[in-house]
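RECORD TYPE: protein structure
NAME: Serine/threonine-protein kinase PknH
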Amino acid sequence: MRRILAIVALSMLATGCTATTGGTVVPAATLGRAPEPLAASALRGLLLTEGELDNILDTSGMTVVGSAEKMYVNHTPDDDCLAAWVNTDEKVYAGTDWSAVRRQELHEDREDYRHAVFQSVVSFDDSLAADKAATDQAKSWQRCDNRRINERDVDNPDDPDHFWSLETAEEQDGIHTMIRVAEGTGGWSCQRGLTARNNVVIDVDACGENITDEGAKIAEQIADKVSDKE
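PREDICTED:
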């Protein structure tokens, strides 16, 4: 019996899975095959264009004001909540074995801009690593629910306090979100949007007056671009 099972197993390895249709053996459809990981060279094309962001934010003239291929570095009095308010921070992604990052900062092309976007994509070796990085990070947000945090740069003695109120971490359709509101600004707020698709973590921050779901929408559209390249 063991010999028969061994022969069957070897036959499957040699010929692949098959199905019988009308008495004829044909190759079976491939089920559950993971998509090929995207190369680092594809990351830049995943970020939303200025026009795509204008449509989401109901703005005009969103402009790239900064871009980088490295993580942010932040040191604040409340570093235990870094993951909840800043995207692609070096400390937050430490130990996740990420391989490449592309990020952009954008706002309207005027001095008194009313919206800002920080959009980033981070590649990993495979989808399992990307999923784990996003899930673990989102779990850490929960300990910061309803926290008041100070974003002051502790490395700059002249930097004043910047207090924000974090709301609660949420998740819908695989996209993790958290809103924070800046104190004393008349409603300036930001929404984090975090998700994973294939081997890419999408990590964004959408800011403006009375922000609601813009961060989630940006993350979703970037995730759709990942799927389009699979």
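COMMENT: Confidence is low (pLDDT under 50) at residues 1-30.
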